[in-house]
Each structure stands twice: as C-alpha cells, then as structure tokens.
Amino acid sequence: MSNIVAIVGRPNVGKSTLFNRLIGERKAIIDDISGVTRDRIYGFSDWNGKNFTVVDTGGFVKGSSDIFEAEIRRQVQIAIEEATVIVFLTDVTTGITDLDEEIARMLRKNPKKVILAVNKVDNSQRQLMANEFWSLGFDDTVFLSSISGSGTGELLDIVAEVLPENISPEANQIRPDIPRIAIVGQPNVGKSSLTNALMGEERNIVTDLPGTTRDAIYTLYNKFGKEFYLIDTAGIRKKAKVHEDLEFYSVLRAIKAIEEADVCLLMIDATVGIEAQDLSILGLIQKRKKGVVILVNKWDLMAKETNTARDFEMRLKEKMAPFTDVKILFTSVMEKQRIFQTVEAALEVYENRRQKIKTSELNDVMLEIIEKNPPPVHRGKQIKIKYVGQLPVHYPAFVFYCNFPDHVRDSYRSFIENQLRKHFKLTGVSIAVYFREK
Ligand code: GDP
Ligand code: GDP
C-alpha cells in the first residue's frame, strides 16, 4: 500500500530525529547544524497492522541555515497533494513562530489528515509551555520528545488509526495473476516516451483507481504474447510540470509506483550517469523487495567506442554494490532501440521473483557448498547448517536451519547470498537469507 506519512515543519524542529524514531533506525546523521546532508529521507514502517512510508521533507532541502521559506511552503503544498497523513512538527523551545502560523494556515485549509506534533517536550516544565500550541487549532495534537522517544507511540497510534484500511487491488478489478510493472526514474530520463512507445495509441486503461491512497492508473498491455499492467502514478502522460523539478515530488511519486509494482524499470539518463537520487530509488526498490531492471536510456547520444557499454556497466555496478545482480539494458526510446527487450527483461525478473525452488534441489546445491565452505568458528562455536528451506512469501526468502544462528557472521551471509545467486535465477530481485535454530 502506498500510504505516505510526510513530516513537515521548519528547519531544526527535529524532523530528522523524529523520522529516525519512526522508522526504528538511528543511523542517520543528526547534527546540530540544520540541513546536513542526509541520505535517509524516507523509510518503511508499520504500526498496529498498517504499513506506511515515512518521508522527511527536511531531507530534501538543500543548503543550510538560509533555507528559503518559499521552498518550505512548496514542500508543504506537495505534502498536502501527495501524502496520506501529514505530521506537522513544531518545537516547544522556540514557541510558535510566524512560519509555524503560516504552515498551520496552509494545512488547516486542506482536507488531508494533519497531526500537530510538538517536539522537544523533554520534561514536565516544557509540557506546560507546550500548551500554547493548542492555539494552532489542530484536534490531533501530541507532545513528543523525539530524542527520548516519549510520545512517539501515541503519534503512531493516531497515524495508524487514520490510515485507510488496505484495499485489495482485486476489489478494483485488477487481476492478481498479471505482472505489474512500473517505470520509475528522475524527471526527463524518458519515462513518458517509453510509456508511449509501449502502449502506442490503442491503450486500454483498465481503471483509474480513486481515493487518496491509490491514485494509480493500471494500463493493460497485451501484445506479442505478453501481458502485464503498466502502472502510472506519476501522471506520466499528462505531466504535472509544476512540481517536476522538485526531488521531493518525484521521489514521492516513485515511492507510490514502487509500492504498486512487482517489477520496476529504473530509467537513468546515459548522458548523466547514475546519481545519488537514482541510487536511493534503487535502495527503496530493494528494501521493498521488488524486482528491478535498469535502463540506461538516451544511449543514442553517447559516442560509442569498443567497450563503451561494458565500461559504463562496470562503473554503474561499482556504485550499485553490493546489489549488482541486476540486468542493465542500454536503450534509446527515441530510436526504438531495445524497447521490447525492456518488457522481456521485466517479465523475466517477475518470474525470478515468484519462483519456488524445489526443496530437494535447494538442499542438494547449498548443502554441498556449505560442506565445502562451512561457516567459520565464532566464539568457539562450531556452526552446523543442517537444512535449507524457502519461505512462502512473495519474494525469494531462504532459511538455513542450524545450531547457533546468532553466531553466523554477515560475511558468511553474503557468501550464501552470492552462492544462491550463482546457482539459481535470482537476477533483479532482492532476496532474504535467514539463519534459524533447528
Ligand atoms: P530538522 O532540521 O527538523 O530535521 O531537525 P533535526 O532532527 O536535525 O534536529 C535539530 C536539533 O534538535 C538537533 O540538535 C536534535 O538533536 C535536536 N532535537 C531533536 N529532537 C529533540 C527532542 O525531542 N528534544 C531535544 N531536546 N532536542 C531535540
Ligand atoms: P520523463 O520526464 O522521464 O517522462 O521524460 P520524457 O519521456 O518526457 O523525455 C524527456 C526528453 O528526453 C524528451 O525531450 C524526449 O524526447 C527525450 N528522450 C527520451 N528518450 C530519449 C532517447 O532515447 N534519446 C534521446 N536522444 N532523447 C530521448
């Protein structure tokens, strides 16, 4: 489900700190200086059975102390358009500022669910000071200390309560047996050109899903013996030029598309190469365990010598590491180069992702490898792996049953993953490897 919870607010109120709390990770760089480069601007979370993606709008603001108010206003506007729930974060230590008032005005006018969260309420004295924030007029107001975590449970309770129930795609006449493909990537890489090239004129738009959370359009492709849904959440065809340039906007759209899809065609521009934003989209696809094919588009614009593609691919994979078992296609939508191959590649990844490997085959292959390369003794524990199974989930996940699962090191896990990839067809899919006690 593409539920998006957006945290908005002035710089320095604690958005990044709260974000890390909500997604249960405290690895992000949190600094006293606002506007520090952060690479974790969105993360996946769940609470009381509801799934959602948390987005920290502050992570998109470039520059430091002189962040333009206009920029913040634009972000609030986009959050209003794109998010399911908005958490409006303020800071008790500064009290209500003019910009807070202005954001509050923007938010009050819109029909989206808004939760006002007053941060840095670390002690009872601040609790008293925080009462002035009721004057902003939000029924759902919570007091937090993001740094200690107090109050965040209450915030999540409200978030979970107001998120819509999961609607199954089937309820909207989307057939579950047909692969869902999304084209994702930065503005101007060629997404709409590819969509048009694939769909041509006779497009058969199945359904325009209504509602605030599922504004996805599924278009059925059925030609040359292939059948799939192409998912458009980006209004790829009718472009929303207004916000196009904004990273925040395009990332929100990518998040929604990824949630809806089985496989993503991640397009990058050959003349630009792979950028941080492309890598974060790739990271998100991987994290959500969706399939991926990388399209290096506008290949017609590249001066080609022997090995140009090979060298390009090598540089690309260095940046993608460790997730490099991904098919890369060099396309030119303009010159109709390898368009149909993108479909074939995506469908192949779809099959890789949903395959169930025979248990006997899995054990024959993997136990032999393990016997030859057993896990190293760790803290005196001799680890014995006895049996391998695949879990019944919607992506490839494997359990290795052994005597001391906690003593298996990450390096051995990577080794196992690589061996699985080497012996089975797992290209383009994120897999999970677990060690459990037997
Ligand atoms: P952002 O610019 O809105 O993302 O704010 P940050 O998350 O970077 O936080 C700004 C500063 O406020 C940092 O120094 C944080 O350590 C601090 N901070 C965040 N949450 C709390 C809190 O609950 N209590 C206190 N005392 N400080 C906080
Ligand atoms: P989107 O923003 O990702 O949907 O990108 P568009 O499909 O609108 O393409 C952006 C621009 O790149 C347009 O001017 C396209 O004509 C151009 N373009 C798309 N694909 C190619 C390609 O393969 N080669 C070249 N040279 N230009 C392309």
List the defining traits of the structure above.
33% helix; 7-stranded mixed sheet; 438 residues; binds guanosine-5'-diphosphate; single chain; alpha/beta; 16 strands; 12 helices; 6-stranded mixed sheet; globular
Summarize the helix and strand pattern as letters: EHEEHEHEHEHEHEEEHEHEHEHHEEHE
Q: Sheet bearing the most strands, described?
A: 7 strands, mixed
Rg from C-alpha positions?
Answer: 24 Å
Helix proportion = 25-40%
Figure out the total of helices: 12
% residues in beta strands: 15-25%
Distance between the termini: 34 Å
What does this structure look like?
The protein is of the alpha/beta class and 438 residues long. It contains 12 helices and 16 strands. The chain has helices at residues 15-22, 69-82, 98-108, 124-130, 152-162, 191-199, 247-260, 276-287, 308-320, 339-354, 359-372, 410-423, and strands spanning 4-8, 42-47, 50-56, 85-91, 113-119, 141-143, 180-185, 204-208, 217-223, 226-232, 263-269, 291-297, 327-330, 385-390, 397-402, 432-437. A 7-stranded mixed sheet has the order 8-9-10-7-11-12-13, with helices on both faces. Strands 2-3-1-4-5-6 form a 6-stranded mixed sheet, with helices on both faces. Strand 8 (204-208) and strand 9 (217-223) form a beta hairpin. Helix 2 packs parallel to helix 3, helix 7 (247-260) packs parallel to helix 8 and helix 11 (359-372) packs across helix 12 (410-423). The longest helix has 16 residues, at 339-354. The protein is globular, with a radius of gyration of 24 Å. It starts with a strand and ends with a strand. Residues 185, 187-193, 236, 297-298, 300-301, 332-334 line the site of one guanosine-5'-diphosphate.
